[in-house]
Design a protein that fits this description.
Layout lengths: L1 E5 L3 H12 L6 E5 L2 H11 L4 E4 L8 H10 L7 E6 L4 H10 L3 E4 L4 H12 L5
Helix pairs in contact: 2-3
Length: 126
């Protein structure tokens, strides 16, 4: 499996990558600093299973990136998880309606993000 971590903070990308890599299910974990870069990576890297997407970023915000992903029929199987400080109920609802599979609020624990990834990918082998 492949994942793409999209956040303008390098330290946050590292935290997310470290947390999800411990699940042992991702062969590749790519990074992008904003939504526009994420879309380019999706074009370049071929099939990606999961995009972990921050909301507030320069160039292109996560919500706009989510809309672009959901408008592209080549990417209809990609699971998208918002990982953000955005906690306004109406924006959470907007993201889910737009096609986000899961939503995780920062700050989070390693266990929280791992559980949300399992939920987004429907990985329940217990």
């Amino acid at each position: 499996m492949k994942a793409l971590v999209v956040d303008d903070s390098g330290s946050m990308r590292n935290i997310v990558k470290s947390s999800i890599s411990k699940l042992g299910i991702f062969d590749e974990i790519y990074e992008a600093e904003n939504g526009l870069e994420a879309l380019k990576k999706l074009e370049e890297k071929g099939h990606i299973d999961l995009v972990l997407l921050d909301w507030y970023m320069p160039v292109m915000e996560g919500y706009d990136c989510l809309l672009q992903i959901r408008q592209n029929s080549n990417w209809e199987d990609i699971k998208v998880m918002m990982v953000t400080t955005e906690n306004q109920q109406e924006n959470i609802i907007r993201a889910v309606i737009a096609g986000a599979n899961e939503y995780l609020m920062k700050p989070f624990t390693e266990e929280m993000i791992q559980e949300k990834v399992r939920m987004a990918l429907s990985l329940y082998d217990e």
